[in-house]
Amino acid sequence: MLKKALVNLAAVIFVPATLLLSLIMFAGTFDRIHERLDRWNKLPHDKLTTVYSQDWQAAEYQTCFSFNQNNQEQLPELDCMTGKPAKVFMVRFWGRTFAPERSNQVYYTWKCRRNWESDPAITCEYRSESD
Q1: Residue numbers in the chain where pLDDT is lower than 50
Q2: Whole domain around residue 116: which residue ranges?
């Protein structure tokens, strides 16, 4: 009877302690996984963005560019190769729009799609960057 009680007590203490330790280890790992996924352009970033483009039909794709700028004071800019006046849209970027380790002269190339009556209005997938 005592042996069975000790086994039950060990299970009651060991299992929660193991789960707690696993959660603590995973929390640190989660930050590293998140950072790596972000560097691999696998996480979305929704931002109000100034977009320079012609009239854009829903479901139409365009190649667009943005500079590596930390836009905390102003909206990021997305140039879709036109001289048309700018409009502000919510844009979902699948990839980082700013990398602090990179020069602000670096520009990113995006493949962007105009969405049909939804927010974000535009979705852009990372394609490449220049030096």
Answers
A1: none
A2: 44-129
